[in-house]
Amino acid sequence: MKTFLVPTDFSKNAQNALHYAASLASQMNSKLIIVHVVNIIIIPARSGKLVSLTEKTDIPYYLKLNKIADKLRSKKNIDCEVAVIDQYKHGSFQVGLNQFILSNNVDLVIMGTKGATNFLDKMIGTNTFEFIKVTVCPVLVIPSTTHYSNINHIAYVSDFETDETIFLQQLFRFTDSISAQVSILNINNSSHQNGEANEQTLQNLTKELLNVNLIQVNEADTVTSIHKLVQDNQVNVLAVPIHKKDFFEVFFQSSISKELVYNSTLPLLALPEG
Length: 274
Prior knowledge:
Blueprint: E1 3-7, H1 12-28, E2 31-38, E3 42-44, E4 50-52, H2 54-76, E5 80-86, H3 93-103, E6 108-113, H4 119-123, H5 127-132, E7 139-143, E8 153-158, H6 165-176, E9 181-188, H7 195-208, E10 212-218, H8 222-233, E11 237-241, H9 245-253, H10 255-259, E12 268-271
Parallel strand pairs: 1-2, 1-6, 2-5, 6-7, 8-9, 8-11, 9-10, 11-12
Antiparallel strand pairs: 3-4, 7-12
């Protein structure tokens, strides 16, 4: 992964995510792009045409972004660029960001979010959560209380009801860059149609790949199992697939998210389908 994108609104949460991203970029020798999305005001001119204030409003944002980038280049010795995205051209924050990602070959988006005692609950309904549901590349969500440490162990959580190849490819593309260990937590659901086939696929996967540990758990024990895995194995990041809206939203809105109090300091790696 060579290019990271960090959206910022210059808040403390965004600033924390930016510092995390800069440290990760330094570890992985990656380029960092800092962007600010401007919600431009469109005003009617006397001629009846709509006129934007883009040029005038972009300048101070570029000055602010460049000041931040200069400090990171000096402190972290990384390649750092800046950009301003005008939301009115795209219709929404999510569309504008995705188009920028595709145009600039971004490999990973790193975003901050509020995080008190339970950052998953706090994340629901925010720009970060809404973007995760439509993102075209992996998103690493950084809680406000998280400080960077080398990523040595990632836990991937899924029910494996459908083909997980595309998500695992993204996961291993990320972990290969940092030689991190991966623990796959397979949530067994009694309603699964292909339980035996999925288990065989996972067993084959762990045989083929190094640094992969497979853990089978019942759905009712998910919270306890994740908690134990994180506590006992010093997991640095929790990764989840977002191929199905129902799984992703149930995961965050059910008792699982409400009970994961420890997760207030654990970054979340969201892996999209396309």
